[in-house]
Design a protein that fits this description.
Elements lengths: L5 H10 L2 H7 L5 H21 L10 H5 L2 E2 L25 E5 L5 E6 L5 E6 L7 E4 L12 H11 L1 H9 L7
Parallel strand pairs: 1-2
Antiparallel strand pairs: 2-3, 3-4, 4-5
Helix pairs in contact: 1-3
């Protein structure tokens, strides 16, 4: 059997969703694992350069790992300093993350219905995180333990099924 050159294999692996790589690394050959591990590590470092390490307690890690960096638009910022103007057409993926004009980190989460909520640093010190949204159910909440159940319900049954199929244990 002919073996793919490492650079070709790395290119193929880089095109796969990180959530797939993340959950499949233990099931593949050592060669693929050696190529995929640095890609997963690089993506994790990128994601967590924007988001706090506790974010997987609120959103499933595979969802975060497949997120995309997005450029902040000033119109997303409301009059109170909340990032509450992001609509469904503003973000393309389930999770997008970045920094706003004040260098506050944010994470926009899009539901299957196209609604978007934004988890963001209220102040640049990073201690307080809030939820902003142009959808009435969400505005102004703090990100805390109770919020985890609400967001998972909001994201929908199909997302929960996807996480289960990927062998991701969701703890409530």
């Amino acid at each position: 059997m002919e073996v793919l050159p490492e650079d070709v294999l790395a290119e193929i692996v880089s095109l796969l969703p990180v959530s797939f790589l993340f959950t499949s690394l233990c099931k593949v050959s050592r060669g693929i694992r050696e190529v995929a591990s640095p890609i997963v590590k690089e993506r994790a470092e990128r994601v967590f350069s924007f988001l706090p390490v506790w974010m997987p307690a609120v959103l499933p890690l595979p969802l975060l790992m497949d997120g995309k960096e997005v450029r902040f638009e000033r119109r997303w910022l409301g009059g109170t300093g909340y990032i509450d103007g992001v609509g469904g057409k503003d973000v393309q993926t389930g999770v997008s993350y970045g920094k706003d004009i004040y260098s506050r980190s944010f994470c926009a989460v899009k539901s299957q219905k196209g609604e978007v909520i934004v988890l963001f640093q209220r102040y640049t010190n990073g201690i307080v995180w809030k939820v902003g949204s142009c959808y009435p159910l969400w505005g102004g909440e703090s990100v805390n333990v109770d919020f985890k159940k609400r967001i998972r319900n909001w994201l929908g049954q199909a997302a929960r099924e996807r996480w289960k199929s990927m062998s991701i244990k969701m703890r409530d």
